[in-house]
């Protein structure tokens, strides 16, 4: 109720353009003109030109089976995600998870697993942005959310200078599963996918614990390989 009244009497400024946006965080015009990802690889969501599996995935298939990304990680999407992550703008989760809602997973054996954050990062940040995005999504999709089923046991800072294969090696053993995922379709939710090395390692771990299929749902995808 208080929230509802606050929304009515204190209109937000649009996060992108600063114009009055009523009760939403991003105004209709800015929402409609957000950059889009077109013709992406169904496996890794990198723009591939023709909705075909990209050369990288053809050469070395990642452990995950598919990826859907809502938006490319470019302005103003990068600002929105960073505001959530570092500016503690938790209200942005509603907006960002709303963008992923249309990408519902296949029903049946599906479970939602947010990309786990290392406990040291969790203490530092106070929340796991992937879990905050996953929570309303799991509810909207009617799919169970498994918050503690996977832990991040190694604090591997992404090393931008490392070539992809080394990053992949660098991620080895980063996760630990508590329990079995036998026969499950695991929907991994994350905010940003950059190289995919972290998602690849998580998928590898989930499959070694029985997952039948691992599909990623990410808010934003870095549009070109880094
Ligand atoms: Zn706007
Ligand atoms: Zn690909």
Automatic annotation (TrEMBL):
Q: Domain Double zinc ribbon spans what residues?
A: 6-58
Which InterPro entries does this entry report, sorted A to Z? ComF/GntX_DNA_util-trans, DZR_2, PRTase-like, PRTase_dom
The residues covered by the Phosphoribosyltransferase domain are: 130-219
Organism superkingdom? Bacteria
Q: Name one Pfam family in it.
A: Pribosyltran
Q: Member of which family?
A: Belongs to the ComF/GntX family.
Q: Which PANTHER family match?
A: DNA UTILIZATION PROTEIN YHGH
Name of the protein described by the UniProt record = ComF family protein
Q: Which organism is it from?
A: Aromatoleum evansii (Azoarcus evansii)
The major lineage groups are: Bacteria, Pseudomonadati, Pseudomonadota, Betaproteobacteria, Rhodocyclales
């Amino acid at each position: 109720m208080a929230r509802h009244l606050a929304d009515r009497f204190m209109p937000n400024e649009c996060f992108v353009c600063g114009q009055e946006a009523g009760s939403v965080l991003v105004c209709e015009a800015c929402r409609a003109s957000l950059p889009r990802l077109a013709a992406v690889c169904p496996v890794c969501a990198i723009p591939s030109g023709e909705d075909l599996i990209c050369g990288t995935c053809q050469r070395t298939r990642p452990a995950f089976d598919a990826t859907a990304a809502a938006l490319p990680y470019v302005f103003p999407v990068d600002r929105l995600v960073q505001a959530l992550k570092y500016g503690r703008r938790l209200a942005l989760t509603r907006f960002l998870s709303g963008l992923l809602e249309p990408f519902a997973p296949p029903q049946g054996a599906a479970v939602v697993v947010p990309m786990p954050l290392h406990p040291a990062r969790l203490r530092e940040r106070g929340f796991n942005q992937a879990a905050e995005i996953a929570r309303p999504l799991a509810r909207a999709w009617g799919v169970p959310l498994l918050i503690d089923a996977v832990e991040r046991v190694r604090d591997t800072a992404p090393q931008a200078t490392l070539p992809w294969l080394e990053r992949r090696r660098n991620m080895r053993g980063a996760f630990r599963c508590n329990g079995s995922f036998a026969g499950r379709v695991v929907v991994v939710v994350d905010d940003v996918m950059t190289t995919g090395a972290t998602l690849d390692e998580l998928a590898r771990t989930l499959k070694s614990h029985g997952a039948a299929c691992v599909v990623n749902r990410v808010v934003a995808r870095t549009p070109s390989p880094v």
